[in-house]
Amino acid sequence: MLELIDLTKQYGSDMVVDHISLKVEDGEIFGLLGPNGAGKSTVVSMISTVKAPTGGEIKINGKSLRRFPMEAKKVMGIVPQDIALYEALSAKDNLELFGSLYGLSRNESKRRVEEVLDIIELADKKNQAVGEISGGMKRRVNIGVALMNNPELLILDEPTVGIDPQSRNHILETVKKLNKEKGMTVIYTSHYMEEVEFLCKRVAIIDNGKLIALGTKEELKDKMNASDTLIVFFQYAPEGIFPEISSIWGVERAEIESNKIRLLVHPAVKNVMDIIDRLRSIGIQITGFKFEEVNLESIFLQITGKSLRE
Ligand SMILES: Nc1ncnc2c1ncn2[C@@H]1O[C@H](COP(=O)(O)OP(=O)(O)OP(=O)(O)O)[C@@H](O)[C@H]1O
Ligand SMILES: [Mg+2]
User: Fold this and answer.
1) pLDDT computed for residue 172 by the predictor
2) Which pLDDT tens digit goes with each residue over 118-169?
3) Of 31, 132, 219, 290, which alpha carbon lies 20 to 30 A from 13's?
4) pTM
């Protein structure tokens, strides 16, 4: 569906997108994850032809975007990070206006507006001026605009920043539904790893313009040899037991706090109950435990040494 080949954007000596190559397959929801200033919006702007690459190439359905921009634009819907709507116009009129900009006939546009209002669930607010509706609803209209031409590829640039949890959930569910029911390919840009984990099977992590990881969460976990965390709550542990805990097979690191032990578990461990059993057998009275699977946040931390939300 989409291919980036050595894509580069340079401002003076600043490489803000640094030789990124990746492929997004038909029908997938692909995550583009990275902290503020990583270069996510710059990548999106180059795909939407708002910015010209300094180097490299973008292909849509195998065709060069530079050579066939009009064809590419027909199959894409782009939701920009900054809301681009006419505040004085109603949701319905905004959608209709953008529909005609995309080249839909008046009748087509009118029909499509009703469909899109249903998808974004704003039919009841359609006549209200966009300037008067909530931030979350504006975001939904912004997404609606990108859906007017019924795109094969929908690209959303941080569509949930600064909105209420209800609108956020609505947006996430809508994206899932469009992918599942209409087979829409989606690129979802965010610095919220929970959203990307919820939506996307494959993810690209970018930092400082560079692609630093690409794959499914499981692949990244294997590649990084990332550890899961096991937290064990106890009411009694024998004095001086720490060295024994640390030397249990599969325990990479152990920390004891007042009534809990935090263990980093090596990926080779298939059953954490073996570790629990060992802890019991060395005299620890366990009252409960919690298992935290490795997540994209911890993978990012492991690669870059910093947190996604700095
Ligand atoms: N016109 C420009 N001239 C110079 N530098 C720019 C320009 N536009 C963007 N940049 C720089 O490019 C880098 C990447 O910015 P970009 O907006 O793509 O990041 P982002 O990943 O989308 O961040 P955010 O999560 O904050 O939206 C930043 O360091 C930014 O300052
Ligand atoms: Mg951005």
Assistant:
1) 94
2) 999 988 888 889 889 888 889 999 999 999 989 999 999 999 988 888 889 9
3) 31
4) 0.81
The residues, ordered by sequence, that sit 6+ positions from 204 with a Cβ below 8 Å of its Cβ are 20, 22, 30, 31, 32, 33, 211, 213, 214
Q: What's the gap in Å between 81 CA and the centre of ligand 2?
A: 6
CA 281, CA 304: separation in Å to the nearest integer?
38
- Rounded to 5 degrees, φ, ψ at 62 are 80, -5
Nearest CA to ligand 1 atom 26: 36
| Helix, strand or coil, per DSSP, at residue 31 | strand
Nearby residues of 300 by Cβ (< 8 Å), 6 or more positions away:
33, 193, 205, 207, 213, 307, 308
Ranges of the chain with pLDDT below 50:
none
- Pick from 4, 11, 308 the residue to mutate for probing ligand 1's pocket: most ligand atoms within 8 Å of its CB: 11
CB-ligand 1 contact for 16 (6 Å cutoff)? yes
Q: Is 78 helix (H, G, I), strand (E, B) or coil?
A: strand
Which domains are seen in the chain, by residue range?
2-221 (3.40.50.300), 227-293 (3.30.70.980)
* Interatomic CA distance for residues 188 and 33, integer angstroms: 8
Residue 7 is predicted with a pLDDT of 97
Task: State in Å: Cα 124 to ligand 2 middle.
Answer: 31
CA dihedral 18, 19, 20, 23 (to 10 degrees): 170
Instruction: Tell which one of 40, 187, 300, 310 to mutate to probe ligand 1, the residue whose CB is within 8 A of the most ligand atoms.
Output: 40
